Amino acid sequence: MIGRGANMKKVIWIIGTGAACVVYSFLVGVIAIAGQIITSIRTHSEIQSVNQDFLNPIMAVGWAVLIILSIWMHKRWNAKCHACKRWNALKLLKTEVLKQEKISVLVELKQRNLNREVTGTQDQYIPGKRKTYQDTYQCKYCGNLEICTHTEDSTSI
Ligand SMILES: [Zn+2]
Fold this sequence. Notes:
flat
């Protein structure tokens, strides 16, 4: 079931990605400093300050790669089979609408004066629909079926 668990996953994922970026920056920094110390020993010169023009592109490219990798891993992780624990195992078999409810959705309407300037906001309930979907996934390795439900709200506006 999607719910609290999915939120926890997201939090862990974001923290993990952030941590990976920090560790990467740290490693690049350490390597850069080590490189400078070695260079200064070899050339018997003073240790020069870190060349930011050289370091910044390396940092940026590294972060981009890490984030792309992280999104890819997250996709694989999301499709993890809980029976055989393999990643990227679940394939969507079918999606069914379980139920449809009429709901009231709270929206914030902007109040404007004659000059079309926003003077304030007003909360108002408008009719909408809440659809509950049931997704059935099947593991491509062990055939285990997993069911997730999710809801989607839509308004008539
Ligand atoms: Zn499986």
